[in-house]
Amino acid sequence: MIEPQRTPATGVLKVSAQSNPNSVAGALAGVLRERSSCELQAIGAGATNQAVKAVAIARSYLQASQLDLTCVPEFTDVEIDGNVRTAIRLLVERRTLHGAA
Amino acid sequence: MIEPQRTPATGVLKVSAQSNPNSVAGALAGVLRERSSCELQAIGAGATNQAVKAVAIARSYLQASQLDLTCVPEFTDVEIDGNVRTAIRLLVERRTLHGAA
User: Fold this and answer.
1) Does residue B19 sit at the A interface (CB-CB below 8 Å)?
2) How would you label A30-39 residue by residue, b for 16+ Cβ within 10 Å and e otherwise?
3) Between the CA of residue A82 and those of A5, A40, A78, A79, what are the distances in Å?
4) Closest of A52, A51, A13 to residue A31, by C-alpha
C-alpha cells in the first residue's frame, strides 16, 4: 500500500512500511485542517517509522496555517486475517502555534 | 546498547533498535516526574519504533501520578563518526491527566 488507507467512519489512517510519508503527511494535514484530531495506525517497526515521519512532515505542512501537531502513542490490538496483532496507534492532535493547546 | 544512553547536559535519551522499550520508558518516566519535557533521539526505523513504544509504556507508568505524555516528532541531523545522519527527535512533554495541557 503506497497511499494511506482511510477508514472514513473512524478517521483512522492506516500506515504501512511501504507508505510514502509525504503522502500520509498530506492526508494527515488535510484532515487536521478540518478536525482537531486524527489517528494513525501502524503495525511493525517499518510502519511505525513511516507514521512518525509523516507526523514530522505534516507539522511543516501546517506551519503556514499557524498549526502544530502533537501525538500520543498507545498500543492497540487489531485483527488481521483472523490473527490478533499489536499495533501502534498515534492519536495526532492539532494545536495552535505560539499558543496554549 | 540495551540501556538508554543519557546525555546529562541536554537531557536527551538516545534510543537504538536494540534498546529495551521498558528500560527507556522507565528512564523517561523518571525524568518526566521531575521535569516537564525530555527528548528521545532515534536513528533508523528500528530505533524509532522502540522510542515510540517507550513513550506508550511510559504513559502507563505515569498514570498513577495523574500524568500523561504527548510527543512532538521532528527531523534532526546528527554527526556519527564523521557522517551526517538524519535522526528522529521526539520531544516528549508532560501533561496532567483529565486536565488541559
Assistant:
1) no
2) ebbeeeeebb
3) 20, 22, 10, 6
4) A13
Of B59, B71, B88, the CB nearest to A70: B71
Rounded to whole angstroms, what are the CA distances from A70 to A51, A98, B22, B23? 13, 14, 22, 23
The answer, for B71 touching chain A at a CB cutoff of 8 Å, is yes
Is A59 touching B (CB cutoff 8 A)?
yes
pTM of the model: 0.88
Measured between alpha carbons, how far is residue A42 from residues B7, B43, B101 in Å?
30, 18, 26
CB-side exposure of A34: number of CA atoms within 13 Å?
5
Pair B44, B71: CB distance under 8 Å: no
Instruction: Taking residues A52-81, report their average pLDDT.
Output: 96
Query: ipTM, 2 decimals?
Result: 0.87
**H-only helix segments in B1-101:** 21-34, 45-62
pLDDT grade for A9, boundaries at 50, 70 and 90: very low
